[in-house]
Amino acid sequence: FKMGGQSYDIFFHTLNHDFGYILVFENKTKTNVLEANFDFELENLEFEDKKKAFDITLEPGERIIRKMIVKDMQTGAGYKYKYSYRVKEKNLDKDTIIQKCIEKGTQKQIKYQNQVLDINYYVLFLDDGYYWFFENKSDKVFNGVFSFQLNNMVMDDPSQD
Fold it and tell me: What is the pTM for the complete model shown?
């Protein structure tokens, strides 16, 4: 799987078998989780659970196998599918998020009355949300008011951190 220009060691294989097909979902990463939704159109095939659409959450190191069984061996069989997915990092702690913000985020420096201060903030989109990290290396106290216009987003309650 590839997301955001980055390839992950997460694979989806289809294997022919005497009874139909075997689908193998394999996550060879140590820290990434795949969340995917598959929707199949089946011709003379069915999954063991009879569902044509399903969600998969594939944890690091995990392998999931699904079987599509031919209903009538005397008739041709086929399938088409569509899917959507995302890859995210598992259980990021606060220190890891801060490190990623500094390393990969967009950095902005605070200016006050045309004076550049040694106060920065970093913005990073990670997995399914934006993170802001503020860093004050100056000897000044910084109080700021930020306004956000959110579209299809919600703000986490900062009192929970």
Answer: 0.64
